[in-house]
Amino acid sequence: MTPPDSRSVIPSAGRLGLVKKTAPADLSRLGWDTADSVELMWSLSRSPDADLALRTLVRLFDVLGGEWAELDSELRSDKKLRGRLFALIGSSSELADHLVSDASKWRMLATYRTVLPTKDELRQSFLGVVDATPETGPNASENLFRAAITGPPAIIALRRAYRDQLMLLAAADLAAIVENEPVVPYEVVSRHLSDMADVALTAALSVAVAVTFPSDPCPVRFAVIAMGKCGAQELNYVSDVDVVFVCEPANALGSRLAGEMMRVGSSAFFEVDAALRPEGKQGELVRTLDSHIAYYERWAKTWEFQALLKARAMTGDPGLGTAYTDAVNPFVWTASEREDFVPEVQAMRRRVEDMVPAELREREIKLGRGSLRDVEFAVQLLQLVHGRFDDSLHRAGTVDALAALADGGYVGRDDAANLTASYEFLRLIEHRLQLQKMQRTHTLPPPDDEEALRWLARAAHMRPDGINDSLGVLREEIKRNAMRIRRLHARLFYRPLLESVASMDAESLHLSPGSATRQLSALGYSTPENALGHLSALVGMGARRGRIQSVLLPTLLEWLGETPDPDAGLLAYRRLSESMADQPWFLRLIRDEGPVAYRLMKVLGSSAYLQNVLQNAPEVIRLFADGPTGPRLLDVDPVETYGAILASSARYEDPVRAVGAARSLRRYELARVASADILGLLDVPEVCRALSSVWSAVINAALDAAVRASVAERGEPAPATIAIIGMGRLGGNELGYGSDADVLFVCETVGDNEDSDAVKWANTIADRVRKLLGSPSQDPPLEVDTGLRPEGRNGPVVRTLSAYDSYYSQWAQPWEVQALLRAHQVAGDQDLGVRFLLMADKVRYPEGGVSEDAVREIRRIKARVDAERLPKGADPTTHTKLGRGGLADVEWTVQLIQLRHAHRIPALHNTSTLQSLDAIGAAELMSPGDVDLLRQAWLTATKARNALVLVRGKPTDQLPGQGKILSAVAQVAGWSSDDAGEFLDNYLRVTRRAKAVVERTFGGLQG
Hints:
Belongs to the GlnE family. InterPro entries: GlnE, GlnE_rpt_dom, NT_sf, PII_UdlTrfase/GS_AdlTrfase. It comes from Rhodococcoides trifolii. It catalyses: [glutamine synthetase]-L-tyrosine + ATP = [glutamine synthetase]-O(4)-(5'-adenylyl)-L-tyrosine + diphosphate; [glutamine synthetase]-O(4)-(5'-adenylyl)-L-tyrosine + phosphate = [glutamine synthetase]-L-tyrosine + ADP. There is one protein chain. The protein is mainly alpha-helical. Among the domains are: 339-502 and 518-524, Four Helix Bundle (Hemerythrin (Met), subunit A) (Up-down Bundle); 685-844, Beta Polymerase, domain 2 (2-Layer Sandwich); 853-1001, Up-down Bundle (Four Helix Bundle (Hemerythrin (Met), subunit A)), CATH 1.20.120.330. Strands 3, 4, 5, 6 and 7 form a five-stranded mixed β-sheet that branches. The chain is elongated and about 125 Å long. It starts with 22 loop residues before the first helix and ends in a 6-residue tail after the last helix.
């Protein structure tokens, strides 16, 4: 908005952006409603909040009285003063109040209308208000003073002086909004704020010296080290100032001095925070230099070395401060060689993200996605990785460090320039948000608060662009810069790596091989040389595919770096890409469907099981895309899959080909279920039901194929019908990824055939089924186990229904009765299978219940199992199947209750452990608390056992006590924390409580 050419045209209040009804009267009181005041009014209209500015001017008019004429005259003649004053009082209600509290301070704006005070001038000003003079004595130094004014008067004087200087800086920073003055660069503002913090704490220290040692010279050498944003000289208008104290000797007097300095500084200026000291808030407030060094040598975590990157001697004894920074500097540049560097850095970044409530993440410009912290974290990580070998990267400030990284070829120059621009834009927005009410905030106003957003846009120098008003410009700029940071966050790490393995741009700076391997190592790759080879192969896949890969890989590598095993994930992605080289849909799907790429990287970097299965069932990757109602991985109905497996295998007469077709669909379903599991889309019962369904379908297909082949070979009808009874987890519909299929084969003679001929033929069929399913394959194994048949492995594999009936009615052992509790028909002749189950009901649910002798025998067997079945060397506390409170414990407990009570409670006629637990609770056979403990233990152990198979790619039951595998299992199991130790502690806690329930149920007869 510009003033009209003719000053005779007096703008209305509305045209000036004034909306309050009192505006015309206020202008009249000031004498600004005349033709010769038009220029003043147009300048006022450019203030971010013209109403606030006008209201503040009226308050100044009332306070100044007769002195108003002097200010009015200056404003009419001095554009620079006008720009600074109007911008200030229309941007910050707090600083406007400060100005009104002592209206004569407008003269400070006139004095410093073209320059800001130097650091020496700031020091003289702050020390002057407390009459500080240089400290004398053996520990005197150039930054150690003694104040003559202490107590509340000192704090009041220092607070006023600090607000004066904030007012001057803010006025200079904001002036370009109103008048055409140069915009003050972000670095100048932040450095000036840091200089103010330095001299302010020098003055606070002078008061602390006078209070702590009122009559004696300071008895200690004392240095204050700035950390964080102040250490990097990139402070905000409203920030905590992080400090660390070095004191020689580190005694009670030194602690008192530090505490008093913090009290004065926090009362007068800003929060002074010493939480970054060794051991944090639990550690000693002051330490000697040697004590600091000893701590960093022995105990410090990676984040503490990252914090030291910004350490700077701030005030106090400069020699001691410099000695501190010189001593800790080597720790910073060797931090990336620590064994736990990568997981600690990744965990720290995730913890920062988790600190932001989900509803604020899109409004949080400091900690959200595409935020200031993304830039700072990325820059610091690259500094830590390469800084040991390149001293030019030893920069504390983010912008300076980013420029040095670009100069060294560690990031692309264009990427660095764009990231710097976005970072400075967000810092500008942050400063404006804080200035408004002088509050520490990093959160944008809600999207529906247009008045607040429009004020922010104007305060950030945004004007209408011909298409959007200032509010629209702000929204577009925030969105654009956040998206640019997100995109460049990945490119910052990975684009130079790709340039180092491919001729992508002859003008580009390339990482050396050593730098490239260091960078990959710090990003989570344990064999960076191999990873570089994979990158080279991927970007060299031919002109078009290589170009697509080079665009995709920065983001894909970042996502892989967040997984438990990025090395294996990258290798798997390379193999997939090479095997799918002639399938155009593969790269197109990854490029165009964002969720597909993320989900694929997550499963490839998490699961050795899926790396193999997806290689042979790549079509499943299409299901990683979103459908109308969510991920298409959930669009598949297991019942339809069951039917499809049977239909597909039925098309082939050759049993090998028939089972091969069934295996192919099983492979597809395993890949789908495992992917959905890792992505957190399926719960434990859903996974178990889906796996059990596909197992049953494949067994059915193999049986049908074997029977068809036998009939064709014999040239006559089959002499018997066959049913396959699922036992154990298969019968309970609770299979895991590593489970075998426990089954019984039952047959029934057809027509005039002899039972012996029928059994002989059925044994041939059973043998063929097991061989067909167990034939060598790259797929997860298909092992059929008949060990739960009568007489165990010494009994015949196949019996007739009448033979089973005769055996169970006369000879069944308690363990065989117990095994029948989970018997369920899964394949073959359904009528025969149902009749088998009806026969089994008489054995497993006898009238009157099983005998007490049988119960005692079950208890005895359980004690023996506990004592003898655990594998040699296994840890009984973390063995998911046979360990304390594990699957076997829960299942035996449920089955014991079924044996004792199922005859009178029909709901216990159930093969599912979880459903039986529900029935036990409903019948009040166990307290609700105990039922819940057993349920949680079963779910926890099953989830852990499944995660073990997914991570390792092979059946295993033993949780590791620590290390990379445990971390991977915790992540795949969906543990919310980055701490795998917490996952293990939870497992131990849940299973320990369940074990107590088991022991009570089994009457203390455990071994």
